[in-house]
Amino acid sequence: VDHLLGIKYLNEADVQLIFETADHFKEVINRPIKKVPSLRDITIANLFFENSTRTKLSFELAEKRLSADVINFSAAQSSVKKGETLIDTVNNILSMKVDMVVMRHPNPGAGVFLSKHIKASIVNAGDGAHEHPTQALLDSYSIREKLGDVAGKNVVIVGDILHSRVALSNIFALKLQGANVKVCGPMTLIPKYIDSLGVEVETNLRKALEWCDVANMLRVQNERMDISYFPSTREYTQQFGVNKTLLDSLDKEIVIMHPGPINRGVEITSDVADSKQAIILNQVENGVAIRMAVIYLLASKIKN
Ligand code: CP
């Protein structure tokens, strides 16, 4: 069975195939009739063991645009609360003739674990602080759309790198496509293994912004950390927050990204988040086409 468990399992040709397929679906969802009948014979379960707005709704919409049958599961309202295990939960859902599982889970490796125990295609919609592959794909796709190509571009990922699945998947995806990648943030929020990923650390935000074509601003993930990790929110914002004055003082206009949800006034001010320099809502728009492409390509393998 084929899965999308992380960007680390993909090669560059896989990414390009997903982008070309997404180009087609982006055109489809801009037609008056936004739906295609491709997956009428496929049933997909969206399993969310952790909160989500964008990813959950984007997957559901992508699946419906492809005419798949869709069921949604939220752990908070389920029998997980009565002690049912992950494997029992998923096998019960699969016995209802489900072909594919999209899963968000707080534990790193949850998708890989599940893939060893069930007979269905799995798409990782975020596993703890590990990977968020469709977010990285839609991020690179949005850079490609805005700047023409990802190869050769300078991209800085700013903020809480340590707890971020978005950072790790983006690093894998950007390096695969030949981008130059730096991370920028307080050393307490940079993982020790960062050098092994071939990524430079820049702790001075101004220098990082002067170097880059694109800055991907991450949210500080308070829910994943002990408060002692972290400078105070005020200090964080002073040193690592992006505001209009700082951007206007650079000698070029860089592209600003954010995966959402935004902590307005912490990692990014509203006048930047809502400016024409920011492609934050384009990222969300592109997420539907990217997820249609991923699901379509995996479902094609199930059908054959
Ligand atoms: N970007 C992202 O994963 O957002 P959600 O947590 O709202 O899905």
Automatic annotation (TrEMBL):
Reactions catalysed according to its record: carbamoyl phosphate + L-aspartate = N-carbamoyl-L-aspartate + phosphate + H(+)
Function field: Catalyzes the condensation of carbamoyl phosphate and aspartate to form carbamoyl aspartate and inorganic phosphate, the committed step in the de novo pyrimidine nucleotide biosynthesis pathway.
Assembly information from the UniProt record: Heterododecamer (2C3:3R2) of six catalytic PyrB chains organized as two trimers (C3), and six regulatory PyrI chains organized as three dimers (R2).
Binding residues for carbamoyl phosphate: 54-55, 104, 132, 135, 260-261
Domain annotation Aspartate/ornithine carbamoyltransferase carbamoyl-P binding: ranges: 3-145
Assigned EC number: 2.1.3.2
Domain Aspartate/ornithine carbamoyltransferase Asp/Orn-binding: 152-297
HAMAP family with a match to the protein in the record: Asp_carb_tr
InterPro entries: Asp/Orn_carbamoyltranf_P-bd, Asp/Orn_carbamoylTrfase, Asp/Orn_carbamoylTrfase_sf, Asp_carbamoyltransf, Asp_carbamoyltransf_Asp/Orn-bd
Protein name from the UniProt record: Aspartate carbamoyltransferase
Gene assigned in the entry: pyrB
GO BP annotation list: 'de novo' pyrimidine nucleobase biosynthetic process; 'de novo' UMP biosynthetic process; amino acid metabolic process
GO MF terms, alphabetically ordered: amino acid binding; aspartate carbamoyltransferase activity
Family: Belongs to the aspartate/ornithine carbamoyltransferase superfamily. ATCase family.
Pathway in which the depicted protein is active: Pyrimidine metabolism; UMP biosynthesis via de novo pathway; (S)-dihydroorotate from bicarbonate: step 2/3
Species, as recorded: Sinomicrobium weinanense
Catalytic class of the enzyme: transferase
